[in-house]
Specification:
The chain has 440 residues and is mainly α. It has 2 domains: 234 residues, Up-down Bundle (Growth Hormone, Chain: A), CATH 1.20.1250.20; 205 residues, MFS general substrate transporter like domains (Growth Hormone, Chain: A). It contains 18 helices and no strands. Helix 4 packs antiparallel against helix 6 and helix 13 runs antiparallel to helix 14.
């Protein structure tokens, strides 16, 4: 934190601590329910086939269509958040995605399945960059990275929790609904209930926060405004998102994150099916097995984050974990279901660590005034990997009866991404109208 006056620095530190304790647990909880509603489709694949006749190709396409509407509406949603405020817009996002998740319980065939996945993607769009934007208005620059790391842990926790929770809910029957329908209804309504809490708990601006003293509000507002004045002093012209679109480095960031997303969602949507082939497991047991790779990945994320902090070369560490992911995904297509499961556990060490290690690179590259918008762009384009992976997997499995081709493709993309991230320039050129300073 840049405040030089000792007394003011103490007030700012106290205010920042209050902000983190007030909002971060809520954001982590929101991320967990968000992630579960996004990926719970992976647990119902066989049920959709048995009850609705939705085959592998249709399942893969429907699972991936979420990311098409998500990408289309991500940046507009973030712009509307800035207009209407974080409190109102994040509440709206949660309510609509929760209701869309409930609607998944009542699909009747392929077309309604496709439609509801598109609606769910549009409803969720803007949540991730909206939280990033919130951090820029409430936390000093030096604190945002730490907050981001805690927030991203919600994804890892959701990966662990989604299996047992979804599997357990699928054992419920009654009122004419199948277990997979109850899963969608209950998990979707959990988002709606949490949205009510968001409305009463969250504030859009520091000045609205009655849980901060006036002195603490002043300290945060002064620090954020001072950061902006420093940027204005260096850059006479505000950077433009459109000018950054002409920067090949942004394209490289999108390519890298697209490759990471391919592997994450390829594993996420097909892992339950691999587990079912290992033995005669019920839905809850499948969910428990599904948690194992993600538990391993959490430990790996923190281990590699510590190594990257100690031995400075962020690009090399991202490249290293991408190669681990490539090796694991290639091996997953070569053996029995049990061997594939073990290989994916190994791959998870790489692709989840790659996701966490990647984001500090564009954050260090971008001017903070347009960071939220450009991160939303990178996130939305990169997340299209969540469309390509399941759609391609489903098509290949239906045509060949095997996932070997899909796994090999994911391995190749991870190797390409590892080479790109290792050799590409990751620090900005000195162009004041577009970029700022040097990456940290």
């Amino acid at each position: 934190m840049s405040s030089s006056h000792p007394e003011r620095a103490d007030v700012l530190a106290r205010a920042v601590s209050k902000v983190k304790w007030h909002v971060l647990p809520l954001f982590v909880a929101m991320f967990i329910v968000n992630y579960i509603d996004r990926v719970n489709i992976g647990f119902v694949r066989q049920h959709l086939s048995a009850d609705l006749g939705i085959g592998a190709a249709a399942y893969g396409l429907g699972a991936g269509l979420f990311f098409v509407s998500y990408a289309v509406f991500e940046v507009p949603s973030n712009m509307l958040l800035q207009r209407f405020g974080a409190k109102a817009w994040l509440t709206r996002i949660m309510i609509t995605w929760g209701l869309a998740a409930v609607g998944m319980a009542f699909v009747k065939g392929e077309m309604s399945f496709y439609a509801m996945r598109l609606v769910l993607g549009a409803a969720e769009a803007g949540f991730f960059p909206g939280v990033l934007f919130y951090f820029t208005k409430w936390l000093p620059r030096d604190e945002r990275g730490k907050a981001m790391a805690i927030f991203l842990s919600g994804s890892a926790l959701a990966s662990v929790l989604s299996g047992p929770i979804s599997g357990g809910l699928m054992l419920i029957t009654g009122l004419g609904l199948h277990g997979w329908q109850w899963m969608f209804v209950i998990e979707g309504m959990a988002s709606v209930v949490l949205a009510a809490f968001v409305w009463f708990w969250l504030d859009s601006k520091p000045r609205d926060a009655t849980w901060l003293t006036r002195e603490e509000q002043d300290a945060i507002v002064h620090e954020i405004e001072e950061e902006q004045r420093q940027r204005d002093a260096v850059h006479a012209v505000k950077p433009s998102v459109w000018s950054l679109l002409r920067d090949p480095q942004i394209v490289i960031f999108c390519l890298i994150y697209f490759s990471v997303s391919l592997t994450i969602y390829g594993a996420t949507f097909w892992l339950p099916s691999i587990i079912r082939k290992m033995g005669h497991f019920n839905d809850f047991q499948v969910g428990l097995f599904n948690s194992i790779p993600w538990i391993i990945s959490i430990a790996a994320m923190y281990l590699f984050a510590m190594l990257a902090a100690r031995f400075k070369f962020q690009q090399a560490w991202v490249s290293c974990v991408l190669l681990i992911a490539a090796l694991g995904m290639y091996a997953a297509g070569q053996g029995s279901p049990l061997f594939s499961f073990v290989a994916i556990c190994f791959a998870a060490i790489g692709f989840k660590a790659a996701s966490a290690l990647f984001w500090p690179i564009p954050q260090g590259y971008l001017d903070a005034r347009i960071t939220a918008a450009v991160l939303a762009l990178i996130n939305s384009i990169g997340n299209l990997g969540g469309f390509v992976a399941p759609a391609t997997f489903g098509f290949l499995e239906q045509k060949t009866g095997s996932i070997e081709g899909g796994m090999t493709g994911l391995a190749v993309m991870s190797v390409v991404a590892a080479a790109v991230v290792f050799f590409a320039r990751m620090t900005p050129r000195e162009k004041p109208a577009v970029l700022v300073g040097r990456a940290h």
